[in-house]
Amino acid sequence: MSDDTAPTGAPWRNFYGRRLGKTLRGSQQRYLAEDLEPLSPGPVDWDVNPGRAPLDLRALFGDRPVWLEIGFGGGEHMVHQAARNPEVGIIGCEPFINGVAMLLGKIRDAGVTNIRIHPGDVRDLFDVLPPRSIDKAFLLYPDPWPKKRHHRRRFVTPEHLVPLHRAMKPGAEFRVATDIADYVRQTLKEVPRHGFQWLSEGPGDWRRPWDDWLRTRYEQKAVREGRPQHYLTFRRGEAELPVDAFTPSG
User: Fold this and answer.
1) How far is Cα of residue 100 from the mean position of the Cα atoms in its chain?
2) N or C: which end of the chain has fewer CB within 10 A?
3) How far apart are CA 137 and CA 163, in angstroms?
4) What is the pLDDT, as a whole number, of residue 218?
5) E strands of 142-220, at which residues?
6) Which element (helix H / strand E) includes 98?
7) 127 catalytic, yes or no?
8) Where are the domains of the chain?
9) Would residue 177 be called left, alpha or beta, if left means φ above 0 and alpha means ψ between -120 and 50 degrees?
10) Which CATH number fits domain 26-236: 3.40.50.150, 3.20.20.70, 3.40.30.10, 3.40.50.300?
11) What's residue 58's pLDDT?
12) Cα angle vertex 179, ends 176, 180, to 5°?
């Protein structure tokens, strides 16, 4: 066993953040018990997929385009998009189990059937997503990790952007929303370096939300606290990244 693997043989990856918050209500515990497994995209984690077999997206969604939401929070945006776009399939990743439970309740209420959920680290999903399979991706109000020494934990770093680029189709759209100015600076520095073009012709392009936008509870809090919002849109380029651009751990 090498130093970069766990005792099970899985890639060794540090995880920063919360897995569980306040005690779940009885209804939320029921949603997790009854609904989560049927909405799984398939075997993602090492213990159930040690060979890292690719996900069969056609089995999940047929010929529909596939979208990815990275860290869906309480799930309101993902359910909104699923209801608005029944012709697509959406996979959401969220390690915070309270948020997963909230999403499951919203799915029941909305009656949408085109969502699948990975209740864990998006890096595990990247391991099994086929190359060039994602048509659109969302990163909405990600954890800002405000201390400078923690900036390497942010999503907009090579460890995440390289596999994201690999998973997305050429020409696919990548949306980032944040209320943290320093996160914007890091995003505009790192995302174009990893094969994405920023689609902006003027300030209005990043100050104005998308036409199909739904304000999340995180954004509502930011507005109440007076923080300006930023909406950044990128397009995945045609070229593949160099092999030595970055090798993610595991």
Assistant:
1) 13
2) N
3) 12
4) 84
5) 168-178, 196-198
6) helix 97-110
7) no
8) 26-236
9) beta
10) 3.40.50.150
11) 96
12) 95
Annotated catalytic residue within 143, 211, 212, 244: 143
- What pairs with residue 93 in β-bridges? 70, 118
Residue 127: burial class (beta carbons within 10 Å; 0-12, 13-18, 19+)? buried
Taking alpha carbons only, the member of 144, 135, 121 closest to residue 230 is 144
The token pair at 169 is: 């189709």
Locate tokens 């690999």: which residue? 166
- In this prediction, residue 24 carries a pLDDT of 80
Provide the 10 A C-beta neighbour count for residue 9: 11
Tokens of 98: 């309270």
Q: Is the dihedral of CA 43, 145, 178, 97 positive or negative?
A: positive
Distance in angstroms (rounded) separating the CA atoms of residues 78 and 247: 30
CA distances from 171 to 107, 112, 138, 167 (A): 29, 27, 15, 12
Report in angstroms the alpha-carbon separations of 213 from 40, 75, 163. Answer: 25, 13, 26
Tokens of 29: 């515990």
How many Å is the Cα radius of gyration of the chain? 18
pTM of the model: 0.87
CA distance 245 to 162: 8
* Separation in Å, CA 244 to CA 2, 142, 158, 240, 248: 21, 27, 11, 11, 10
pLDDT of residue 10: 52
In the chain (250 residues long), the average pLDDT of successive 10-residue segments reads 46 54 78 93 77 90 98 95 98 92 96 96 93 98 82 91 98 97 96 96 88 91 91 96 61
Identify whether the C-beta of residue 183 lies closer than 8 Å to the C-beta of residue 157: no
